[in-house]
Amino acid sequence: MRALNCWLIAVYGFLYLPIAVLMVLSFNRTGMPTAWGGFSLEWYGKLVENPKIIGAAWNSLVVAVWATAISSVLGTLLALGVERSRPSASREALLFAPMIVPDIVLAIALLSFFTLIKFTLGLRSIVMAHVVFNLAFVCAVVRARLKSYDWSLNEASRDLGATAFTTFFRITLPLIGPSVLAGALLAFTLSIDEFIIAYFTAGAGQSSTTLPMQIYAMIRFGVTPEINAMATVVMGVSFVMLFAAQRLNKGRLPGA
Amino acid sequence: MNSRYATWLLMLPGLLWLGLLLVVPCLLVFALIFFERGIYGGIDWQAPTFENVTRAFDPLYLAIFLDSGIIAGIATLIALLVGYPAAYAIAKSPASRQTALLFLAILPFWTNYLIRTYAWIVLLNPVGLINSLLMGLGLRSQPLALLYNKPAVVLGLVYSYTPFVILAIYSALQRLDPSYGEASRDLGASAFQTFLRITLPLTAPGVAAGGVFVFVLSIGNFVTPDLLGGGKFQMVGNLIYDQFLSARDWPFGAALSALLIGLMMLLLFAQAIASLRARGDHARA
User: What is this structure's pTM?
Assistant: First the structure.
């Protein structure tokens, strides 16, 4: 048992040390891994002054907000419908598919599709693509909550004369709200970090470059303290979002 | 309103979205396979052909499939070996702590893939932390070539996908009825025997599920071979990437993708059959 626990600690070390090193280096004045020149926010300053990074971050934010909003609404409705209708294997497969299809396959499929229907590639096509997988994740999180939902509450509400609309907003939504929010936070995190599908469906030009695309372009040219700072910010945002999602969803994160 | 119509109405927008932007594009990729590429990229719809399929099975490309299959296979094996004991330790820890421990293990999986890969460039590059330490301590006079080779790619894949393995195996362990293990111990089996003959076979479906996903995600990966392999060798993902973004030969890229999907379906199917059979044995026992 002790050996097992040591192994577990080693695995956590393996998972977190590389990220931790990155974060510490981002505050190093020298920007070098070997020489600690004192604590500094210099590289964060450089980050803010870089218009390409700020532009890309803004694009990512726009994409993530839209993709999250659309997928939260559609995913929640989908979950409500699915949980109240007869099970269907093909529908289950369709809802599971976006989570398991390799990113590159979905990426090329959407690129071909958008090109064929002559849809102009840009932020809009990225949003449409991101909704595909976000929708599936939101739906999965909300469905997990609905498994323990007491549908007799809805009947009671209807019996007392409330409309379906009122029942949804006064009974169902307040009860499943935390899981919808958890799903939305996960969707936001996935969307803001997603690289491959965005890369294929963005088209050319800086105007539709998202943050991960910018990161990819930068890290192909090697290590810079500026990337460390940017990585720290991105990881920090993700960690906060995921912790919030976990709290809202009573400790569960669905498997990817 | 009829409640059946109401549920359909609720599902309609989401299902339409998936139908239009998942099913149709995937079918389109499948259709692309049977056409020639146009002169300026794009597709020549006038020229149906089987050439892309036969070309995908050309020894040159099969070698890349085999090569990336080996890399993905090694990464999968290591991820399972690293992940299984970790999942086991989490499953055996006090119930009140399991959720937090599991969360901690999966958390990295949900964060930015590029940054997690980049973290290894920081550690492994010639003037990176590990080489600086080795040289600073006088253990090496020259930096080790830790980056831009196959082991670096395998390491990157293991690092990225181990959380997923832990999740899959933990779920299997959690479904395991502890009384089987207790019975085995009562009947005089050692802890190791119990693990080997009871726990491991009963959690095999979880191991298989985790393994299939790691393998498929690894073999179709183009980011890790590009960043940690230095673009010096190709995996299936890189090959597909090139057909779409550099060579502009979409039909051939589509054929390669179909091969990748076919491989994935085959593995998932085998895994489903195996786990059904395992459940059958379980029920009979």
Answer: 0.89
